[in-house]
Design a protein that fits this description.
Length: 513
Amino acid sequence: MTDVVFVFEVHQPYRLDRRAYEKIISKSMRGVLELKDLEEAVLDQGLNKIVIERAAKKCYIPATKIIIDGLNEFKNQERRFKVSFSISGVLIEQLFKWTPEVIDVFSKAYETGAVEFIGQTYYHSLAAFIPPDFEELREQFEEHRRLMKEVFGAELTSAENTEFIYNNDIAYAIYNMGYKTILTEGVDWILGWRSPNYVYRGYLCDVKVLTRNYRLSDDVGYRFSDKNWDQYPLTADKYAAWLAATPGDVILLAIDYETFGEHHWPESGIYEFLKWLPREILKWSHLNIATPHEASSRNTARDIYDVPPWRTISWADERDVSAWLGNYMQFNSFKMLTDLRPYIYALGDPGVKRLWKLLTISDHYYYIATKFGSIEQVHSYFSPYKNAADAYAILVQAISMLAKTIADYISRNPVKVAAAIQLPVEKAFHFTLPNGEYTGLYARNLIELLHRLIEVPSESLNYHLNRGDLQSWMRHVLLLNELADELSEVVKESLSIEEKRAALIKLIKSILG
């Protein structure tokens, strides 16, 4: 038997508003600003509502009802029709807000017992690339897992990282979260001579890996309504015959759910295709329809799917991560955002943290891609903005407004943040000797600095104080302007280096209380 696995990607981002700054200025003139005002200013909720209502009407409701009919039709048969949905947390939020009836139809589908929900990042984000050590990735996966349990009562055992982004380290992190199966792209230059239609195992971890058959998936997702395609029109019986002729243990078909009615309009015949497909597949005695968990449990892993971090893959564009992090604008805006994370977590304010997480959504960076040809057309199709530069400016505006909010919050209690923050190593203060030799000592926050001051060699401390390095780090990284000023005054005094050390330790202790 060959297991045919259907996975539908269900996601809509929160789109950003180019008028965010104007909206927040107008709001501030009318009264006291709250954090929710900033979120509402940054997000284009008018556009988001339109998109969700349109997708619900054209895809989510009619397509899911067709699927439910198919699930029920084969309910009491030995071979059943089964599907899987990977629904982002931010989409579920929007569905509850504007089209709660979509939640109802997904719930009815799950109640048939023939649906598996797939774990992913709550914000459908680039969390896998945010340091340190996949903390953000784990947090967003757990947030999504709790949501799916709360809304649908679902226990998740299979997972995909955003847009099937995958490497060995990501796989190991997801495996350590308790997931048994990971879905990703079947990339030719990773597979080599091997077929995507088998179960693989993660590198150095006991997780099953299912790899997408992108040719068969894209026949539906991209080519279905293309009248210039030499296989047009694609009918359910023709497609089922292709599946029947495909060798292997598992055929993973992963498709954007909006394919059914949104990307391919109902007039294209996509609803009829979806309706008849399970019937045509199950006519073939050697084909079985399974969920990812069933397929990975039933089939033995044939080999290792080895994807080192420097060859990270996805299902987009050239099957790498250039769709999101392929040009300077993307790198710069993403670095601006990730640099804020230590301050966000030191503040501990849920509202600030949520707004920051909303800006990790992968789509914001996808819109900034500068590609050519057919790939550019795909990016343009999904983007609500005029061009990549426009998308970049709007994202940077949102990040800058968040950064200003963070700075305002920190100014109210800078010492608390400076003590609690855990800066990444590259932003820590590193003590060196006058000859440039590294002492091996560094501080990531004010408390660590206090401990390092006790043990740092005198010549190193004297070197950094005289150059103003320590004062500059306190001012620009820890945002402790007053402490930096007081330290500068200590340096000016005619004291020995040991006296300066003692004065500095006393000063920091008095500030910390």
